[in-house]
Amino acid sequence: MNLHSSEFAGRMPAYVDRLQHALDQRLPAAAEDPARLHQAMRYACDGGKRLRALLVYAAGESLGAAVGKLDAAACAVELIHAYSLVHDDLPAMDDDDLRRGRPTVHKAYDEATAILVGDGLQTLAFAVLADEPSLDVGQRLRMVSILARASGSLGMVGGQAVDIASEGRLIALEELQSLHARKTGALILASLQLAAVAANATPAAQQALESYGRDIGLAFQIQDDVLDETASTEALGKTAGKDLRQQKSTYPALLGLDGARRRAAELFEQARSAVAALPGGGAPLRWLADFIEGRGH
Prior knowledge:
Elements: H1 5-26, H2 35-45, H3 51-62, H4 71-88, E1 98-99, E2 102-103, H5 105-108, H6 111-130, H7 137-151, H8 156-165, H9 173-183, H10 185-198, H11 203-230, H12 233-236, H13 242-245, H14 251-274, H15 283-293
Antiparallel strand pairs: 1-2
């Protein structure tokens, strides 16, 4: 299939709408008991860039997967991401009052509810994969395993633990890359791996997606560090300048702003090259790399 980047750009709003519909179907109804918890879970899932879900759809489209086989994976990664943000914003973690341009869950509700929201979203993500009828049992099992590894102590949670432990001291570049490969990169990589499972991808295609995912994940984090220093709170939808105030090691701190920007640009180009051999040149994924590289928040 000859895919073009501009064609995926035109379909992206439909994918976002599709994801929202799929999440609405899978999240507990707002009125279902315990209603306040379920309302808060839905609040936590509103808005955002939907990057991880779009990676699922872009990778699946590049491999010719039926879109109906991608919805569960797209929902699952968004649920895990939403849970991680809710917990990350808590006073015991990064202590933020603003997320996606509005009060964080513990401010809109309370801290206990926010903890339970994260717990509920995390467990729902695995139920969504385990119960998906469009996937065979083997695919469901592989997806659950991929997401569990990416989300746990060897992935996202472990990265957050190291990030907290690293506050107030400057760590080496290699340590910083390892930290963010877990904290941010693991779930981005998992998004592509889940799509590969849904598409029954060849080993070569899996390898291409994994190279792309590692490069995009690191580039995205470097970009976040740059934006934290250069963008406004209004543009970001979250509190700007927190890394400096919390004395965190960042790519601009280690490489300088210009050096960090150059490194991110190199990684985006590597990512585009990694998927060039996929059907249609991996155009949806190349367009998404361009889209992420040009973001301002």
